[in-house]
Design goal:
The complex is a heterodimer of chains A (114) and B (114). Chain A is an all-beta fold. Chain A contains no helices and 11 strands. Chain A starts with a strand and ends with a strand. In chain B, strand 6 and strand 7 form a beta hairpin. The chains are: A mainly beta (114), B mainly beta (114). The interface between A and B is medium-sized, with 28 and 24 residues.
């Protein structure tokens, strides 16, 4: 099993450009999450999904959109990138509910917005 | 709003010593408290977790101590080794209308020196 994979690993964007980050998991997990990690601020939840076709806002959702069209994939979109979105983005997944609470993280995407 | 406060921000411990990282929370609805370990360039991975119905959980050299009345929990690493050098995040889970979310602390960068 590959676990949680993220594409791309690195990206540099200019202000105003758009992009989509792809997260895929092969563990048949119901729940998927997008976090951003910034120095001194830990991991902050952007959006999450509790099942195929569902999405919900997390702690810092502004400037991001997500979609979960297939159970195994969770996409994070930046419609108009801003320098404040320079960060490392992590996707995670979990069984959820009685299946267990452990979140499995991907390797991250380092995004720089200039 | 930071619901889980973690300290210290960084910690240097000699090989063989005890590393202690502390976390405090306010939300009494939290019902699961994991610690995640993150090596440079990698995603976080679950290290150990505790439920509030026990005061201590030990797995090898790693121990979580939990004080429900004080709303505090801590990670103790006994006989610390250079391979333990990593960033450690405490977290807390709240179940809200079937939606599971983890709130993370800001992280502690641990360095074990020979």
């Amino acid at each position: 099993n590959a676990g949680v994979t993220q594409t791309p690993k690195f990206r540099v964007l200019k202000t105003g450009q758009s992009m989509t980050l792809l997260c895929a998991q092969d563990m048949n997990h119901e729940y998927m999450y997008w976090y951003r990690q910034d120095p001194g601020m830990g991991l902050r939840l952007i959006h999450y999904s509790v099942g195929e076709g569902t999405t919900a806002k997390g702690e810092v959702p502004d400037g991001y959109n997500v979609s979960r069209l297939k159970k195994q994939n969770f996409l994070l979109g930046l419609e108009s990138a801003a320098p404040s979105q320079t960060s490392v983005y992590f996707c995670a997944s979990s069984y959820g509910g009685s299946g267990g609470y452990e979140q499995y993280f991907g390797p991250g995407t380092r995004l720089t917005v200039t | 709003q930071q619901q889980v406060k973690q300290s210290p921000q960084s910690l240097i411990v000699q090989k063989g010593g005890i590393s202690i990282i502390n976390c405090a929370y306010e939300n009494t609805a939290f019902d699961y408290f994991p610690w995640y370990q993150q090596f440079p360039g990698k995603g976080p991975a679950l290290l150990i977790a505790i439920r509030p119905d026990v005061s201590e959980k030990k797995e090898g050299r790693f121990t979580i101590s939990f004080n429900k009345s004080a709303k505090q929990f801590s990670l103790h690493i006994m006989d610390s080794q250079p391979g333990d050098s990593a960033t450690y995040f405490c977290a807390a889970r709240a179940l809200n209308f079937g939606n599971e979310k983890l709130t993370f602390g800001t992280g502690t960068r641990l360095t074990i020196i020979p």
